[in-house]
Amino acid sequence: MNLETQVKSCIHNALNIDSSHLTLESPLLGNYPEFDSMGIMMLLMEFEQTFAIDSNLLELSAETFATLGALVLALQDVCIPVKQSA
Predict the structure, then answer these.
(1) What is the pLDDT of residue 57?
(2) Residue 18 forms part of a structural domain
(3) Whole-Å CA distances, 65 to 6, 20, 40, 84
(4) CATH number of the domain where residue 25 is located
(5) Is 37 part of a structural domain of the chain?
(6) 27, CA 20 to 30 Å: which among 10, 56, 64, 71?
(7) What is the span of the domain harbouring residue 8?
(8) Domain count of the chain?
(9) What is the pTM of this model?
(10) Residue 67 forms beta bridges with which residues?
(11) Which residues form a coiled coil (predicted)?
(12) In this predicted structure, what is the pLDDT of residue 86?
């Protein structure tokens, strides 16, 4: 499973958003009510579990969550996938 697919799965799991239609250009922050401060914390916890990372390693800003592509890029350098899809 590639990183984009894993991030979409994390979004679905943490925020219960249908992420199947999302593309790298899809806006996130401000486009979904679930992307509030609590939702972002839930998503970060999902990233920590899925990628075995410390979310403190991520450069966090509004731009990080602006689009799916920005989020994938932010995770690209710090993640090591540990979950495998069946």
Answers:
(1) 84
(2) yes
(3) 15, 17, 9, 24
(4) 1.10.1200.10
(5) yes
(6) 56
(7) 3-76
(8) 1
(9) 0.86
(10) 27
(11) none
(12) 44
* 84 located within any domain: no
Rounded distance between C-alpha atoms, residue 66 and residue 27, angstroms: 6
Radius of gyration of the chain (CA): 12
* Inter-residue long-range contacts of 9-12, CB under 8 Å, 24+ positions, other chains counted: 9/50, 9/85, 10/43, 10/46, 10/47, 10/50, 11/43, 11/68
| pLDDT per position as a tens digit, 8-57 | 999 999 999 999 999 999 999 999 999 999 999 999 999 999 998 888 88
Write the DSSP assignment of 18-72 as a string of letters. Answer: --TT--TT-B-TTT-TT-SHHHHHHHHHHHHHHHT--GGGS--SGGGGTBHHHHH
The amino acid occupying position 66 is A
pLDDT in tens, 63-73: 999 999 999 99
Q: How far is CA 27 from the centre of its chain?
A: 12
